[in-house]
Write a structure and sequence with these properties.
about 525 residues; alpha/beta; three-stranded antiparallel beta sheet; disordered N terminus
Length: about 525
């Protein structure tokens, strides 16, 4: 909750030959002059004066249509909003921000629907003209006779009524893209209640108190899914928890998946199978009558359109898509650009809630954002196949260069531990056919550390894949291939699997003898390993 700055002194109203009013002028005088210079005789009498004080004495709201649909949980968030708007006095502005699709609008509609304010008015506020249009619609609702007046006059009449009756109304300004779009309105209403929803996490410190909205609690997400799935009768709910977890408990995605399953008869587990096989299709799928523009894919495309002007922002997000969703070391991204460039890209993505910059120097990304960023879509300029492939290879290169050389030095162990989840995620999210030499290096270093820590099963699988990369890209005789074969053999020895270790060491000795000779130090070392 903040105290609003006092309004700026009004400028003299400017009038053109048609008597139009420039927004920001003196509300009281400008409206009267406008009507006098117009052909006022054809307007209803009530259109020639201010909106009556009792225009909404019986109550008025356009919230109901917006609130249609399921709503679950959010008990603490609803209580916080209620507490924030309890006090009287100057204008109170709260901004609920969060990732697109997290449920900001649904929260606002649910909370506003239970309020007792005389006027509860919802305005889609993604542009400055949309704000003006929403305020003008409020004027017509308060006084239908204003319909014959120009829209800008209707807007002025509504602002005057709001300013004169600050204790009677609540405005919901939904999906604000820029605080500047709503500042002219806020500056002219000295009291009242305003709830803002926005994807922007930053830029509100001079305008509103902020509340970050996260994903649904797991139990609430499952409740939402099953409620939609069973709306027309009992259905097999098995796998609902797995679907919600895969979708990261994002409200819009859960609702989208449940509606799809309810309409098509697909079970939750079958939905997961389809999501794995045809991700681009399933992320865009909506049930009959659903809003195809209200999918996570479409919403985030609009968000990325806005951040694309910041160099590296799109590339950085596509790289982050290949790592584990949490605790990504921020310094891992340093080679992508200069510190100001990387920081600007991180800042822009964080401002739109596409990523979270944590206090401990790590980054987090919602797993569904990552999944979409890894999924090519020819209709989305931010998800071109070639860009995604480039980001995948860049993610591997960054990991390879970030690992310390000495896995036996205890001082290096925290760094190994920090990088292991992201190496695992990288190789889990693509087939081995797309492994590069950087992938092999990252796998080799991660696996040698795991071997030293006694995690032999994980070490063996990583070294097997690393050797396969070297064989495919460099051949049997390359020194890097020989090293990879030796490291795998050493891990088999550590695991007591001599039947697999001996043939690998024998192959290495034979190649070294053929290429380097019997007396070369590397040949002798390989023979020692075999012995």
């Amino acid at each position: 909750m903040i105290r609003k700055r006092p309004p700026e002194p009004p400028e003299p109203a400017l009038h053109g030959t048609n008597g139009s009013i420039v927004a920001g002028g003196d509300v009281n005088n400008s409206v009267t002059q406008h009507v006098e210079t117009q052909q006022a005789f054809f307007l209803p009498p009530e259109a020639q004066g201010p909106i009556p004080a009792d225009a909404a004495k019986t109550g008025m709201s356009n919230i109901q249509a917006v609130a249609a649909g399921g709503f679950v949980g959010r008990t603490s968030e609803l209580a916080s909003l209620e507490a924030a708007f309890t006090g009287p006095g100057e204008v109170l502005v709260q901004a609920v921000h969060g990732l697109g699709g997290v449920g900001k609008s649904a929260l606002a509609a649910e909370w506003a629907g239970g309020r007792r304010d005389t006027v509860r008015w919802w305005i889609t506020a993604d542009t400055a003209p949309a704000v003006d249009a929403g305020v003008a619609a409020l004027a017509r609702a308060l006084q239908p006779g204003l319909t014959g007046l120009p829209a800008e006059v209707q807007t002025e009449r509504a602002i005057r009524w709001l300013a004169d009756h600050p204790d009677r109304w609540l405005l919901i300004l939904d999906n604000v893209e820029d605080p500047a779009h709503i500042r002219p309105l806020l500056d002219r209403i000295p009291g009242g209640r305003v709830l803002v929803t926005t994807r922007l996490a930053s830029g509100w410190h001079r305008h509103a108190a902020v509340v970050r909205l996260g994903v649904l609690a797991p139990a609430d997400a499952v409740e939402l899914f099953t409620r939609i799935l069973t709306q027309h009768g009992p259905r097999d709910e098995t796998g609902a928890e797995a679907v919600c977890a895969e979708l990261g408990y994002l409200a819009l995605a859960v609702e989208q998946a449940a509606a799809y399953c309810a309409e098509t008869g697909v079970s939750p587990y079958a939905y997961l199978d389809q999501l794995a096989s045809w991700p681009a299709t399933m992320y865009a799928a909506t049930a009959e009558g659903g809003d195809s523009a209200r999918t996570a894919a479409r919403i985030w495309r609009l968000t990325l359109d806005r951040v694309a002007a910041t160099p590296l922002a799109g590339d950085l997000l596509r790289v982050l898509a290949w790592y584990a969703p949490d605790r990504i070391p921020r310094d891992l991204l340093a080679p992508l650009g200069t510190p100001p460039e990387v920081n600007a890209a991180i800042g822009k993505l964080a401002a739109y809630n596409m990523i979270t910059a944590n206090d401990d120097g790590t980054l987090s990304v919602h797993r569904l954002v990552q999944a979409l960023a890894r999924t090519p879509d020819p209709e989305d300029p931010h998800r071109r196949a070639e860009d995604i492939a480039t980001a995948r290879d860049e993610a591997a290169a960054l990991l390879a260069s970030a690992y310390p050389d000495d896995e036996d030095e205890p001082a290096n162990w925290p760094r190994f531990q920090a990088l292991l989840p992201h190496t695992d995620s990288l190789v889990d999210h693509h087939s081995s056919d797309h492994d590069t030499l950087y992938t092999a290096v990252a796998l080799d270093r991660a696996s040698r550390y795991r071997k030293g820590q006694g995690a032999l099963d994980l070490a063996l699988s990583g070294l097997q894949r690393a050797l396969a990369v070297q064989l495919r890209l460099r051949g049997h005789d390359h020194p890097s291939t020989l090293t990879a074969r030796n490291n795998l053999a050493a891990s088999y020895v550590a695991a007591g699997d001599y039947d697999r270790a001996i043939p690998l060491h024998q192959a290495t000795v034979g190649i070294r003898e053929r290429i380097l000779g019997h007396d070369h130090p590397n040949t002798l070392n390989s023979r020692n390993n075999l012995a």
